[in-house]
Amino acid sequence: xxxxxxxxxxxxxxxxxxxxxxxxxxxxxxxxxxxxxxxxxxxxxxxxxxxxxxxxxxxxxxxxxxxxxxxxxxxxxxxxxxxxxxxxxxxxxxxxxxxxxxxxxxxxxxxxxxxxxxxxxxxxxxxxxxxxxxxxxxxxxxxxxxxxxxxxxxxxxxxxxxxxxxxxxxxxxxxxxxxxxxxxxxxxxxxxxxxxxxxx
Length: 200
Known about the structure:
Layout: E1 6-8, H1 9-16, H2 21-40, E2 43-44, E3 53-56, E4 61-63, E5 70-71, H3 108-124, H4 133-142, H5 148-151, H6 158-166, H7 178-189
Antiparallel strand pairs: 1-3, 2-5, 3-4
């Protein structure tokens, strides 16, 4: 087992509030590559969140904690209703995908949804969905959120398309794989002036 020293993305956000454009490129872009790799191996992570992204002392991000991981298409989400709300929901409510809340197959778009929440938090300084678990679930199912460029007026509208597609409630409206999502995220990030997105 590899011994990694560094700090989590969650710790970085607690200290800085949000990431600079350069930090976002260094920390977030490789996570798309990590997801593309595990998805190609037929694995979904299902617990993408800042505390599971470790940034080494040399600045290299590492995706950790595969405790909830499973095979693509082999796992189903939990359909949340009044009758099933007492069933254990595996994952972190703030970051889990809509698919994990419904009786839907879990695959690459599920991980990309969670990564979309992480990206939103890194660039805006807060998560797109806040409140109690029930409120968060309802807002996710309806896609109710403030677009990134409205939540942080320093962000260009170009970033909205990428993040909102990552966070689309319907699987068919999301990116089909991490490679395509990465290409569009990098293109959107190119429109973010470094001096405008400096962490505060």
